[in-house]
Specification:
Blueprint lengths: L22 H12 L4 H24 L12 H23 L4 H6 L1 H6 L5 H19 L1 H14 L1 H4 L2 H30 L4 H12 L2 H12 L9 H13 L9 H22 L2 H5 L1
Helix pairs in contact: 1-6, 2-3, 2-7, 3-6, 3-9, 3-10, 3-12, 6-7, 6-9, 7-9, 9-10, 9-12, 9-13, 12-13
Length: about 280
């Protein structure tokens, strides 16, 4: 039986607390991610754009005064930054979330998890912690530090209600992106027992599909196809939060509805696939 794979033999975990019963699953998932050799180098690579942005702000402030935008409290500039962070989070989610459920389906670990006092919701929440923590580490944290550095370099520009609104919109967008990509990655992982296949499918759906849909929409003279693009939807919602969403069809509300439908589909997949019978059928 796949249930007796070495990864599950003689496993001893502390009892789950009553309020946070997903903690053992989340702890094991985080330990497994940190034990992989590529995790820390990948996290460092994800932070390289932040260091580049800091150098840009410092250079624009000191060397090119008045010639370049020298503050992150600029709607279009911040929107481009968040779009880049979404792309980085998609790469990291491919690495961190693709094997989350697929590995348990392959080895039969779901039988062990759900045979205890753990519900399907506890299992999904525990698995969601890993991609969520990774995404927040490469989206929310660098965005917070970037805005803090911008406020230190130009306190007069940062000390107003508009800049505060931009900061709140940016933080909200990073949280939404982290949760959305994590849930979609878990749904792809639950569709197959092959972690590599799940990661490849998620990568195709998030990154290469966007330019293909944009190109097809240009050829057909319609932008409706971009509603099926995850990146286009997240960028449109981010633009709306920052007040930089361009007018046109479809608008940010249509993209938000499409993203909500994708979330509903992901939750439906998780509800159908995360069950003990699925791993032994």
């Amino acid at each position: 039986m796949p249930l007796y794979a070495n990864v599950y033999r003689k496993r001893v975990t502390p009892p789950a607390p009553r309020r946070w019963r997903f903690q053992p699953i989340a702890r094991e998932a985080l330990r497994g991610l940190l034990a992989r050799r590529l995790t820390l180098p990948l996290l460092f690579a994800c932070w390289l754009p932040f260091f580049g942005a800091i150098l840009y702000l410092a250079g624009a402030r000191l060397l090119f005064q008045g010639m370049l935008p020298a503050t992150p409290f600029d709607g279009p500039l911040l929107a481009r930054w968040l779009s880049l962070q979404t792309l980085i989070a998609a790469f990291l989610t491919t690495f961190a979330g693709a094997h989350a459920i697929a590995g348990d389906l392959h080895a039969g670990g779901i039988v062990l998890y759900l045979s205890r006092s753990l519900t399907r919701r506890d299992y999904v929440l525990g698995k969601l912690v890993t991609p969520l923590a990774g995404n927040l580490a490469v989206t929310f944290a660098p965005t917070f530090l970037l805005l803090t550095a911008g406020a230190a370099l130009d306190p007069d520009r940062a000390a107003n209600w508009r800049s505060l609104g931009l900061a709140c919109g940016a933080f909200t967008h990073t949280i939404l992106v982290s949760i959305f990509l994590g849930l979609v990655a878990l749904a792809f992982s639950a569709l197959t027992r092959n972690a590599a296949l799940a990661g490849f499918a998620f990568f195709l759906a998030v990154i290469p599909l966007n330019p293909l849909l944009v190109l097809a929409g240009d050829q057909l003279g319609s932008s409706v196809l971009t509603l099926f693009s995850i990146r286009a939807g997240l960028d449109a919602v981010g633009g709306a939060l920052l007040g930089t969403s361009p007018s046109g069809d479809p608008g940010w509300a249509a993209h938000a509805a499409a993203l909500a439908a994708m979330i509903a589909g992901a939750l439906g997949i998780l509800r159908a696939r995360v069950r003990p019978e699925e791993s032994i059928s």
